Amino acid sequence: MNVLHIIDSGGLYGAENVVLNLMCRQKETGLKTTLGSIGREKDGEKAIEVKAVEVGLPVKIFRMRNGPNIIGAIRINKYAQNNNFDIIHCHGYKANILSGLLPFKYGKIPYVFTLHGWTSISKFNKMWLYELFDAVMAKRANRVVVVSRAMQENYRLKLLRINPVVIYNGIKDNFEYNNYKVDYCLLNGLNDNDLKLVCIGRLSDEKGFIFLLKAVHQIKTKWKKNVQLSVFGEGPEKYNLMRLANKWGISDNVKFPGYIDNAYKLLKNFDIFVMSSLTEGMPITLLEAMRAGMPIVATAVGGIPEALEGGNCGVLVPPGSEIDLAKCIIELYENITLRDKLSKNAKKQFMQEFTVQKMEEKYRSVYLDVINNKRKIY
Q1: 4: which of 28, 132, 266, 322 is 20 to 30 A away, CA to CA?
Q2: CATH number for the domain including 49?
Q3: In 270-285, which positions are buried (b, 16+ CB within 10 angstroms) versus exposed (e)?
Q4: Are 275 and 198 in contact (CB under 8 A)?
């Protein structure tokens, strides 16, 4: 089987890592797989392209103008036909919308769309419109995949009578944390007696980091705890978050080391992994924390409650509430028995549901079904 994965990537975030993990596993199992990387001419070399080459994956670069580019969609399809691809697998709204514009006469190769999660937190803005078009274009796919049962129940998909397949994101299960050499410059200021919190993610509005900073302020002032939060990531909200930390008198308690490649390798140096998102699909950083056996406090949005088994593998809190976030962090930190129980449950749940092996097996099943029976299942 020969699979062309299409993505328009803005960095090495969750969806990008899912695609690369899936492709590497497919290569191991004998599938032929190529990364089709979409972008504008001025984008230059993208991080996902560099990483793909680094791990030995073939890359085909497609540069084109933004927007409803039917010519670009035809170019991709013709490349796939000329190189005998059996499946075109599109990831994310840009790739999905582009492929959905393809005229019907080019429908010889089946398309699988993965909806990795819609992250808009308000209606009628640019991102909300992209997500709406993403749902509409999904009607053109031979099969649609979502990464959580919560996404399966999305009202847009219900209105369009799309019944997607649920395939959880997966990551490698064999990382040895004890063999990783820590760059201690990234851990400066941490003290064994401090409450050490960590989060990893893009610094953008939908990740709810403002509420996490407010929770740190609560922990410091109301509970009088020595607390240190390390925020690994980059994004448009970084300097605003740094400004707010200074304004609220917690700049000594919050560190922004920036984007760190494979930041999950540092998790074992912290007490609690925190996720304050206002919206999510099935976040890779959460799965990394589960794999590491970390105590977790996370907001009950998107696929997070599914991953944490409704609170059996981590503490769930309402989104947008710094009071609940701070209270649950303190309660978990002070209850060693509960921390150990939830951590063990999280690691067990990860091994059962979220390995790259399970993800690849389920996608392979979808591919074979689509190839053998191209009809849509809506």
Answers
A1: 132
A2: 3.40.50.2000
A3: bbbbbbbbbbbbbbbb
A4: no
pLDDT tens for 204-262 read 999 999 999 999 999 999 999 999 999 999 999 999 999 999 999 999 999 999 998 88
- Give bridge partners of residue 167 from the DSSP assignment: none
Separation CA 286–CA 295 (nearest Å): 11
Nearest to 116 by CA among 295, 282, 267, 307: 282
Strands 32-39 and 59-63: parallel
In angstroms, how far is the first alpha carbon of the chain from the final one?
25
If asked whether residues 291 and 368 sit together in one domain, one would say no
Q: Residue 227 pairs with which residues in a beta bridge?
A: 195
Distance, CA of 2 to CA of 251 (rounded, Å):
51
* Contact present, 101 and 70 (Cβ < 8 Å): yes
H/E stretch holding 73:
helix 70-82
With beta carbons less than 8 A apart as the criterion, state whether 234 and 240 touch.
Answer: no
Q: Looking at the predicted structure, is the pLDDT value of residue 193 above 50? A: yes
Record the tokens describing residue 157, joined without a space.
Answer: 């998909």
Residue whose tokens read 């937190």: 121
What beta strand segments (E) does the chain contain? 2-8, 32-39, 59-63, 87-91, 111-115, 143-146, 165-166, 195-200, 227-232, 254-258, 272-275, 296-299, 315-317
Cβ pair 346, 293 in contact under 8 A: yes
- In total, how many domains does the chain have? 2
Mean pLDDT of all residues belonging to the chain: 92
Write down the pLDDT at residue 63. Answer: 95
Domain identity same for 162 and 186:
no
Sequence-ordered list of residues with C-beta below 8 angstroms from that of 146, at least 6 positions apart, any chain: 114, 115, 152, 154, 157, 164, 165, 166, 167
Strand partners, 358: none
**Over 80: is that where the pLDDT of 176 sits?**
no
d(Cα 164, Cα 150) in Å, to the nearest integer? 11
CA neighbor of 203 nearest in space, from 106, 102, 285: 285
Looking at the fold, whether 163 and 186 belong to one and the same domain comes out as: no
CB of 332 closer than 8 Å to CB of 315: yes
